[in-house]
Amino acid sequence: MDKKNIITPKRFIVMTLPIIGAILIAVTAILYIVYRSWYNQRDKAKWGDYDDCGYECGSIN
């Protein structure tokens, strides 16, 4: 048996760490998108009564 084919605990960690990191980043991004859409939907419902008041978002004047 070659030494290249033997999977040691250190080699296993080195091989799986990038995959685990990529999965963690993807899950975090998906959770952030879901949170922002939920927050925007809640905020739109909260401030929906003020749509006709004449105030435009981003306008300082």
Commentary on this structure:
With 61 residues, the protein is mostly helical. The chain is built from one helix and no strands. It has one helix at 9-46. The longest helix has 38 residues, at 9-46. The radius of gyration is 24 Å and the shape is rod-shaped. The relative contact order is 0.06. The mean pLDDT is 83.
Residue share in helix: 55-70%
> Can you give the mean pLDDT?
83
Multimerization state? single chain
Strand content: under 5%
Shape: rod-shaped
User: Care to count the β-strands?
Assistant: 0
Question: What structural category arises from helix and sheet content?
Answer: mainly alpha
Largest sheet: none
Total count of helical runs of at least 4 residues: 1
What would a concise description of this structure say?
Helices cover 62% and strands 0% of the residues. The protein has one helix spanning 9-46. The protein is rod-shaped, with a radius of gyration of 24 Å.
